[in-house]
Write a structure and sequence with these properties.
heterodimer, A: 448 residues, Immunoglobulin-like, Rossmann fold, 3 domains, seven-stranded mixed beta sheet, six-stranded mixed beta sheet, B: 212 residues, mainly alpha, two-stranded antiparallel ribbon, 8% strand
Chain lengths: 448, 212
């Protein structure tokens, strides 16, 4: 197959022709400098295909789901929270079929496997709910072991072509067993590499949003902030629904480039780079999910007139993106070395600039919540100011980018003073969801 | 793996060599001929893998004859693997199952860590750096998402590193025509680089009629 060649000034002309996934690739600028290292941004706009319509009773209608629900039953969960968490599981179960599997683990300082991983038959679901009804809130929070025991249940029955995921719900801090955030995050990444993903749900004001966010990032799942117990049922059943609608498992952007060009994902996805290939792991995409991913390419200096190419491809475990771009699944972009004047005067793609600015703003706000929480108030304000200045430098007269700058500048005083735990969580969640292309409730965004 | 083929300029720019170099290697028998000949010639991932291997062997200062001998004894599959060795799936990289990993983690024995976190700062090394006094960067914080290991507000363009490390300099061969080359040791200072650019422009104007 022939890669579609396009001028780095324009967007890729092909759009959705059939039922497969599609993507477009747009660079912000065409020229790079001969005597400086240049950063250039590339916007990769990815849309997953729609799930094919199939009769509801067809057992092969979708890949099987292999889930473990891990619930915090520590003392602070007493009352409304544990009651609603149980109801969320009941509603989540109702969406599973006998070809799916589920397990239920509850934890405080002890770990109780309420239901081993088992097929989601009506009888098994009924029995598990009856056992769950006897679970009360008590004790402390052995988050790590509870989570890992849930992951073990998923790991025992990995569905090769299905979705294997732990849903971890907590309202507190890990205070028994492994509590080091770095170690927990590493476990999440290692489990993901072994086929078990983790999504996290934090309830109320007392959990660690940066830890749960890092576990779901590293674990290839999603993070949800549940501000009030009333949202528990909707958000858990929503995540169960997403696992049942995965159409492009393990979606990855692959960039092939000269070895002296450095490629990174500015969007907060894990990526690995070696030998002129950089792979950005977007995770499992659901039916018609839409993501905008920003890459940053750092070019070395080079001789005037020489062209540099990079090829962008989107792949996944089900071939949902085969032929996504005019019969091929790759697009080749070209940049040209030019003198400083040509570089200074070259046109920019304002749409790419806007996406980059939104992403910069979201990521710096996410960082600022962490700094503020640690008491680094001046640094939080200083870093937000620096990003505002940076966006202002290329915003020109664009109203949207000027508004982003104005918003960041308007928040300076806020970041420089202590904020409440709840306010930090609200702002952390809003910015982390935005940077990951998810909506205000943390849900996947779909092609409208 | 991506099914892709490349034109000559694409192949050359992906491998970081000039088209002329590619033609030279083909003429020297270091690279197989393309599927078609002429302006529509197409090259594949095997060509790219082989080109990168040649570049690496040249970096080890091996003479072309020695490189040719080594290529002749390397099976084609290994070559392709060389070009795509970062393409292993997560499952293939993991050396043990999720269940084994979890049981070892819970037993307190350090599990075997796979190499998947190449872009992720080592979490254990990062922990002390996240202290209150350390300057903040997202790369140093284990509890932050791991993505971009440099500061977000980095300027668009940065000056090349100062020329204090002669070991890092390299000779670039700039083809002015198929028969005339200019050799430049990089990096150059900015003013000198400007002069070289000027020289290339003048030379190309002068020699234009000889361009293929």
């Amino acid at each position: 197959m022939t890669p579609k060649k396009i001028d780095a000034n324009g967007s890729h002309p092909d759009s959705n022709g059939g039922t497969g996934g599609t993507f477009t690739v747009r660079p912000d600028r065409h020229y790079i400098r001969t005597t400086w290292r240049s950063n250039r941004f590339v916007l990769v706009d990815v849309t997953a295909p729609a799930a094919p319509p199939r009769p509801a009773d067809d057992p092969n209608a979708r890949p099987p789901a292999n889930l473990a629900f891990v619930l915090d039953r520590s003392g602070s969960m007493a009352g409304e929270k544990i009651r609603l968490a149980k109801r969320a599981l009941e509603e989540g179960f109702a969406r599973l079929k006998a070809t799916d599997r589920f397990a239920v683990v509850v934890y405080d300082h002890e770990i109780d496997v309420v239901a081993d991983s088992q097929p989601a038959t009506p009888e098994n679901r009924r029995r598990a709910l009856a056992r769950l009804a006897e679970v009360d809130a008590r004790g402390t929070t052995a988050l790590a072991e509870g989570w890992l025991r849930g992951a073990e249940q998923v790991g025992l029955h990995i569905a090769e072509r299905g979705v294997n995921r732990v849903l971890l719900l907590t309202d507190g801090l890990a205070n028994v067993g492994i509590t080091d955030p770095a170690e927990l995050t590493r476990h999440a990444a290692e489990l993901r590499a072994r086929g078990v993903a983790t999504s996290t749900f934090g309830v109320g004001a007392d959990f660690d949003e940066h830890l749960l966010g890092a576990i779901s990032d590293a674990g290839g799942g999603h993070f949800y902030f549940i501000a009030s117990a009333a949202q528990i049922v909707d958000l858990i059943t929503g995540e169960v629904g997403e696992t049942l609608e995965v159409v492009a498992p393990g979606t990855t952007i692959e960039v092939t480039h000269p070895e002296d060009v450095r490629v990174e994902s500015l969007s907060p996805y894990r990526f690995s780079a070696s030998d002129g290939r950089t792979a950005i792991a977007l995770g499992d995409l659901v039916s018609e999910q839409h993501l905008q991913v920003v890459l940053r390419l750092n070019f070395p200096f080079g001789e005037l007139g020489r062209e540099v190419a990079a090829t962008v491809a989107v792949t996944d475990g089900d071939g949902a993106f085969a032929g996504a771009s005019g019969g091929s699944n790759s697009v080749t972009l070209l940049w040209a070395y030019a003198d400083d004047r040509t570089n200074d005067l070259q046109p920019r793609d304002p749409e790419v600039d806007r996406v980059v600015a939104r992403l910069f703003a979201a990521r710096i706000r996410e960082e600022a919540t962490w700094l503020n929480k640690q008491g680094h108030f001046d640094e939080a304000r200083g870093r937000v100011e620096a990003v505002a200045r940076r966006i202002r430098a290329y915003a020109g007269r664009d109203p949207e980018m000027r508004q982003i700058v104005a918003d960041l500048e308007g928040e300076r005083a806020m970041w420089a003073a202590p904020m409440s735990a709840m306010e930090l969580k609200v702002r952390h969640f809003a910015s982390s969801s935005m940077a990951r292309g998810r909506d205000e409730y943390g849900r996947a965004q779909r092609r409208k | 793996m991506t099914v892709t083929d490349y034109s000559l300029p694409e192949l050359a720019s992906l491998a970081g060599v000039t088209p002329r170099t590619v033609r030279y290697y083909i003429a020297q028998g270091l690279l197989p001929s393309p599927a078609r000949v002429g302006p529509g010639a197409r090259y594949g991932d095997a060509h790219l893998a082989r080109l990168r291997l040649i570049k690496q062997l040249q970096g080890e200062h091996l003479p072309l004859a020695e490189i040719r001998a080594r290529l002749a004894t390397t099976p084609a599959n290994d070559l392709l693997a060389y070009g795509s060795r970062s393409q292993t799936s997560p499952a293939a990289r993991a050396s043990e199952s999720a269940v084994d990993y979890i049981r070892r983690a819970l037993a307190g024995t350090p599990p075997v860590v796979s190499a998947l976190q190449s872009n992720v700062p080592s979490a254990s090394a990062a922990a002390p750096a996240a202290s209150a006094t350390a300057p903040f960067t997202s790369a140093l914080l284990p509890s932050m998402p791991a993505p971009v290991p440099m500061s977000l507000d980095e300027p668009d363009e940065t000056l090349p590193a100062p020329l204090t490390e002669p070991a890092r300099s390299q000779w670039d061969r700039l083809a002015l025509t198929p028969d005339i080359e200019l050799h430049v040791r990089r990096p150059l200072s900015r003013p000198l680089n400007k002069k070289v650019e000027h020289l290339i422009r003048l030379a190309r104007q002068l020699l234009e009629e000889d361009q293929p």
